[in-house]
Amino acid sequence: MRNMKKTDIITRRKALAVSASALGALLLPGCSKSSPPTYGSLLRMGDALTYTAQRTLLPGQSLAKEYSFADISSFPATGTINPADSSKEYYSEEYERLKSGLFANWRLSVEGSVTNAGQYSLRDLQRFAARTQITRHTCEEGWTAIGEWTGVPLSSVLEHAGILPGARFINFYSYDGWEDSIDMLDAFHPQTILAYGMNGKALSVPHGAPVRLRVEKQIGYKSMKYLQRIVVTDEFVDPGDTGWAWYVGI
Amino acid sequence: MVTLSFLLLAFSGFEILMVHPRLYWGEVGNELTPALLELPISRNHQRDTWEESKAFFATDGSPVSAARTFDELMFNQNGWGRSLHFLAAWLLIVPGVIYLLIGVFSGHFRNHIWPKRRELTPASVWRDVKDHLRMQMAPATGGPDYGLLQKLAYMMVIFVALPLAVVTGLTMSPAITAAYPFLLKMFGGYQSARTIHFFTSLTLELFLFMHLAMIIKTGFTQQIRYMTLGK
Fold first, then answer.
1. Who's near A218: CB < 8 A, 6+ residues apart?
2. Share of chain A above pLDDT 90, in %
3. A240 inside 8 A of chain B by CB
4. What integer pLDDT is reported at residue B230 of this predicted model?
5. What residue ranges define each of the domains in chain A, with the CATH number in brackets?
């Protein structure tokens, strides 16, 4: 929390940049790769409208509600619950090996539009000033749970890696094969953290060990578990239409 | 447009509810916490395959974590369900706001929807209630003047139910409540807003059925002509 001031200023600048480009996207439809494609689908066009509207109308800086310790609730682990389970489609041999070594050999790769691409161990991440937040996880299914998350603000890691001014999207890749991305406003939001702790303990495997993303202003599925690699890009990396909205601030 | 949007909202809303057919009160609600109401509308309310739960803290009654092991068996069509719901919501909001503005400035609300003082005497209220109970409604006249109970029903829909559905819907958006946290306070939390959203939608659907029933009762063909062609 100590270097919050600095983060604040940068985030504000990014917020302005993103708002401006969101407006640009509104004026110039067909402007390619600066925002997710709609694949000619009415549903994706609706998603794009919601994204543009929220980015244009909502203040970029506001924090999601934080709760007290007593509010911490029971928390289902859903989706991938163990990438080391060889009976599952999402099985990762590498993850199984890392897990059996208690993640001592785990490295988070940060690459792309940065001056110092690098590999961060769990200990490296823990050396950054930590942020702890008690927030509500809101699943697209309709359930909610409150947990305490401890981790390093994504902005600290991105700045450490020397993120370049042309950067527009942060892409995440997980051990369970999942990939997704967020824009700069969410990436530099103070509550967007790479969490290694949950409810005062090391993050457990069902909840995404060793490190998961927390994006508190979007629906739960953006908070990816089992992080492996972060790639900073100047353009939108198109994973194809997954059938799910890319932006889920609603 | 609004009718199409309403039908799409009801349809996608039902799909979304099927994915998690449990309602709660407060901020938190999930399969590991007790439900206020459980609706038997999809196989998802059978929650029997979980890994053993683990307590987060060493205290009695500590919240727990449990891993769900039946994800492949779950009903979940929220990929299109949610996107369709929000697309349809845009189709309700944009014409809805225009309708409200026209209603206020044209005097439509004041002249035709808001009951007149002379209509609100106990005798005239009682007369309208009695007529409805005897199923004796005035025949189609092609728009205003509306009956008293009809006006009250329209008022509830226009000024209470539809706005409440929209605002409780927005209270379920993490980005919007980050900007406007009073929404969560106003409804007592995310899950309370979700529960109110459900009952409000149910009320609106009941209104739609009643409205349809009345139209049929008072002459379907004539009423539809009045509503669409205005003659």
1. A182, A186, A247, A248, A249, B174, B175
2. 84
3. no
4. 79
5. 63-233 (3.90.420.10)
